[in-house]
Amino acid sequence: MVRRLFRALLTLTALVLLAGAATFLYLGWRINRTGASDRAQRADAIVILGARVEADGRAGPDLRVRTQHAVDLFQRGLAPYLICTGGYEGDRLSAASVACDLAVAQGVPPEKVLRAEGSMTTREDAASAAALMAAHGWKTANLVSHPLHLERARRLFEDEGVTVYPSPTSTDLSAIPWTTRMWLTAREAMGIVWIALEDLGVPYDWTIPLSRLVYGSPNSQSTDPNVP
Length: 228
Prior knowledge:
Strand 4 (about 140-145), helix 5 and strand 5 (about 165-170) form a beta-alpha-beta unit. The protein has helices at about 1-35, 60-75, 95-105, 120-135, 150-160, 180-200, 210-215, and strands at about 45-50, 80-85, 115, 140-145, 165-170. About 50% of the residues lie in helices and about 10% in strands.
């Protein structure tokens, strides 16, 4: 009897581990698939997800590339407005402020560039951008970010009721060193698991290890230039 229970427990454990591995592999495939295709099309706005700002106030490498890509989409006529996210509200060195200033410097009219500040995580970026869009009656957006960040960001924006069209800064994933690509893919997959656990009502204290993995520390935004 004890032996049968032990075998049943081992079988159940193996099945759970197998299901977990399969889910993780599927998420990794989705993350890379989303980042390898530019789905930009006509929309109400273009949303630039925040990234690192240098200590001297200049846009970090990833924020600069994201902003340039968004400006290109704007100049192609794919949306009439840019929405810049990230950072403390009213901070002139927030990611949103720096990206907006950079977009204006690249020729976008100031009245076409909007800030969605008061956010330090991708979930908060989605909430603040969605609130701004709702105030204007907008429902669709081209979502600009690092290719391996877009699958998680897409899910969070859709949770806020926004229809998004992912538009990665580059679709050439082969240009990312494979070790970096594997690590970032794994981190983003854990981020998606974290989202699912939060949606299920799992207490935040229980998910702190995932928070640290995705953002570096609880309630802080990663300064990694590749994945915010």
